């Protein structure tokens, strides 16, 4: 497994496994504590694993957590997603930068997203399973959502949004969220 820094988002990493394929399919390691440690992250900090299944065109996000935030490892274990990270850490050298990724069951890439960054994705295949490993227990009272179609972010979603939660449909703009966080 190889770790690569994401230049657009300070502190973000892509972890690329080495799949071993044959006529049966493939095998690869999707988490390696030593590799996580090698980039200065604590592999024992992750406390919850979750999985979402989405149909083609489903859009989830943009989400982040208030308070101490939430760091996460994200991987598409089946299918393919267009994945988005927005750095909203005011003290970060990459503040307000965006980064886009294609995560898929074929590559099994894992993306590390630092706390304080917004995250969202859109399913590109009929079925897409996305796994999350987060560094603190989820508390819905800390959920923050930003409009996926905020013109200030100009995210190039590859498909029309086929379906999304009511919370995501009604999300405020980035400017509104930042203003709320200041007060």
UniProtKB/TrEMBL annotation:
SUPFAM superfamilies associated with the record: RmlC-like cupins
Alphabetized CDD domains for the sequence: cupin_RmlC
Gene3D superfamilies: Jelly Rolls
UniProt keywords, alphabetically: Isomerase
InterPro entries recorded: RmlC-like, RmlC-like_jellyroll, RmlC_Cupin_sf
Pathway, per record: Carbohydrate biosynthesis; dTDP-L-rhamnose biosynthesis
NCBIfam families documented for this protein: rmlC
Family: Belongs to the dTDP-4-dehydrorhamnose 3,5-epimerase family.
Protein name in the entry: dTDP-4-dehydrorhamnose 3,5-epimerase
Species assigned in the record: Streptomyces atriruber
């Amino acid at each position: 497994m190889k770790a690569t820094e994401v230049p657009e988002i300070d502190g973000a990493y892509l972890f690329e496994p080495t799949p071993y394929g044959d006529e049966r399919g493939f095998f690869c390691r999707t988490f390696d504590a030593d590799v996580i440690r090698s980039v200065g992250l604590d592999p024992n900090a992750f406390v919850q694993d979750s999985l979402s299944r989405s149909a083609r065109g489903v859009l989830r996000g943009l989400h982040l957590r208030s308070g101490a935030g939430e760091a996460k490892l994200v991987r598409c274990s089946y299918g393919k997603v267009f994945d988005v990270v927005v750095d909203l850490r005011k003290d970060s050298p990459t503040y307000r930068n965006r980064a886009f990724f294609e995560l898929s069951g074929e590559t099994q890439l894992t993306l590390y997203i630092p706390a304080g960054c917004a995250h969202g994705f859109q399913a590109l295949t009929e079925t897409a399973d996305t796994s999350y490993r987060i560094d603190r227990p989820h508390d819905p009272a800390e959920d923050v959502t930003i409009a996926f179609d905020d013109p200030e972010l100009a995210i190039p979603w590859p498909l029309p949004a086929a379906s999304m939660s009511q919370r995501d449909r009604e999300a405020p703009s980035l400017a509104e969220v930042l203003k709320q966080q200041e007060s």
